[in-house]
Structure formats: structure tokens, C-alpha cells
Write a structure and sequence with these properties.
It is a single chain. The protein is about 35% helix and about 25% strand. Strands 1, 2, 3, 4, 5, 6, 7, 8, 9, 10, 11, 12, 13 and 14 form a 14-stranded mixed beta sheet that branches. It has helices spanning about 10-25, 35-45, 80-85, 100-115, 155-160, 185-195, 205-225, 235-245, 275-285, 290-300, 320-335, 350-355, and strands at about 5, 55-65, 65-75, 90-95, 120-125, 135-140, 165-175, 200, 255-260, 265-275, 305-315, 340-345, 345-350, 365-375. The protein is globular and about 65 Å long.
Amino acid sequence: MSIEIREIAPVKAELEKYVKFGIDHYKGNSYFVPPLILDEVETLTPSKNPAFDYCKAKSWLAYRDGKPVGRITGIINTVVNERTGSKDVRFSFLDFIDDDEVVDTLFATLEKWAKEEGMTSVVGPMGFTDMDHEGMLTYGFDELGTMATIYNYPYYPRHMERMGFVTDAEWVEYRMTVPDEIPQQLQRVGDIVRRKYGLRTIKYTSAKKIKADYGVALFELINEAYDKLYGYSPLSRRQIEYYIDIYLPILRLENVCVIVDSDDKLVGIGISIPSMSRALQKSGGKLFPFGWVHLLKAMYGHNDIVDLLLVAVKPEYMGKGVNALLFTDLLPVYIKNKYRWAESNPELADNENVQQQWKFFDRRQHRRRAAFRRDIK
């Protein structure tokens, strides 16, 4: 009954086995949203993911009697450690059966490697960068997840507490009801901001055009807007080009709002996407043979949920009502497409600027998640 730990080689066959365990672990759970297997494999492949330019990572599967029972990835982000003066190893891709020995063995393996690399503390779940999943679910286990979030069983945070981890950061998530029309107060704020600062919104119908006009600027804006957020890892130029090529071509552009000033300089961006949650559940994380059909139907067919993936505003415009412009632009699209609800996705619980943007909407806070920390023994 002892636990065997196997390090995962960063090759496709090994990584697919690793990723599939994280999907099979939730078989029959109606709230878990599986990731696309090929995306997860690419994230963990050094030759594919440009975050490996400044990150080290190792992954392990735990076995009992030849059966996989847990997994964990350790990530050392040298850029963040240098920015914060810390010596953290991040844990990610964490899944395990409800068993003390399994969990303790996974973390002992991770910490042994981290100590060899000179690290003194462990924190997570955190990805390579903020473009990856982060935050362990601590509330809202009976709520359907989103493609941008981690789902885990309720016993996960209990094990973190048992092992002596303490909460290091918290995120909250909201589900908003899409109104039948733009709230008057929101429209009023949007009109004032537009006139006062000389701002305007732009809609695109061509991914090639938005990429040429603002592709790089968009991710540079994210670096500016998110720079002071918890654990933020600035995107390198190679990462920016990587994400431009991956994400911009698949966006439904009517759900994207670009805000510029009188000189056409990018001031704000709002990116949303029809919910992929049910489609990913139907696909089981696979694009082929028919997973892509479910995803296309979710993107362009009837869908009553829209996910708010990203909102970024230049620091000098934060707290000045610019977000109202985003929603006066996007709400008519949501209403036209008959979206009934909007998912906020995670936002830091102490980020008051972000919390304020939802005050115009009927909403409920339905999920909460945390990053945990402890010193390496």
C-alpha cells in the first residue's frame, strides 16, 4: 500500500497520461470543466511554452498498487522571485484522492526538489504566469466551473490546513444577471467618461486587423494594469507573441471591446467569450473526433452564459469610470445574443477597483478560492 512517485518526462505520451489523470479524477462530477488536453500538454512542454525561458518545472504522478492516485507540478518562476525577493516554489496541477499519505508524499517530493534548487517556501496553486489557472476552490463546490478556473473537491483545502498551509491570497467570483437594457446610471457614467477624457470604443470584425493594430499593445497593457497584483509575472515579448497567435484568432470579436484615446493609444480592453463549460464537459477535453463540434456550437450557437475573461485599464485611468465604457459597449451585444448570465471569473478579494465595476448589476458571489503558503521544512 506504499506510495510510489514517478517523475513525468516532458514528452507528449507522458504528459498526456499526467493530464488525463486530472480529468479522470473528476469523472461523474457535474461541476468540473475539463481543460483541453492538448493545451495542458503544451503548457508543460518546455519547447512549446515560452515561460520556460525563465521558469523551471517538474511534475510527478503518485501511484498505489500501480494505480495513479495523485499528481503535482512544481514551478520556480525566477522573474517573480527576483521581483519579490522571495524563494518560492509554486505548486500547480494538484490533484489527489482523499488520503493523507498520498498528499504528504506529493508535497514531500515537491519540497525535496525545491530545497535542492535553493527555495525556502511553497505557494499555490499558481501557474507559470497569470495566464494559467490559479487559486484552489474553497467555496462554491456545487457551482459549474469555467474554462479559466480550477475545480477541486471540498477535501482539498482541508488537507492544506492539516499540512500547516495558511491563506496567502483570496479571489472571489460573481455571476451577474444580464439586464434587459443598459442601466441608466451606467450609461450616464459612460457618457461622462467618454466626453471628459476624449475616449472612444472600437469594434473589430477581423482578427488579423486587431492583431495588427493592437495585438502587442494589448498584452503590454495587461503587463501595466496587472503589474502590482498578487504573484504577477510580466509577460515577455516572446510570450506576448505566443498568446497573440493562440488567443486572438479564436475570439468572437463582437464580445471584445477596445478603448482608445484621441491619439488612438490603447487605454482599456475587455475580452469576453461565450461559456465553453458545457461544451468542454461534452468533449471530455478532446478536440477529436467530435470535441471541436461542441466548442463551435458553444461559440457561435445559442449560449446563455458569457465569460468575462479579461478586463485591463491603463493605471492612470483606473478608478475613473472607464470600465463603464466597456459595459455600455458590450451589454448591447450580450442582450442581442440572449446571454442571461455573465461570469466574472476570479478577481482578488481585496481589489476594490474591480469590485466596484459590478455595482450596476444584479449579482451573487458564488465562488471563492485561495492561494496557500508554508515554509519548506
